[in-house]
Predict the structure.
Amino acid sequence: MFDTRGHSLKVYEQIRLNDPTGSLADDSIMATANSHFVHGEWDDADYHYGLLRTEYPRSEYQYQAHLLGLRCKLLRYQGPGYDNSPLVEADELASSF
């Protein structure tokens, strides 16, 4: 009945959109990415970790964004019978560390 997670994700998005250079912008992206990660939404989590890595290179969350982004890419890989692009992306991310 009450979509607390959905509302919190909207609030995080509004924080980032209303003040993209503010001190809470990278915090809101990290919180959004972590929420998606905890709920097993690997594509969404990977997108937000990537956003944090590219848009906020001086963020205190850079190490965590790299590490958890790499984990998301590995979890997105479905096996040898499927597309191997998550593995290629994971390799590129690991070499950029």
Observations:
- The helical segments are 4-18, 25-38, 42-55, 62-76, 85-96.
- Residues 4-18 form the longest helix (15 residues).
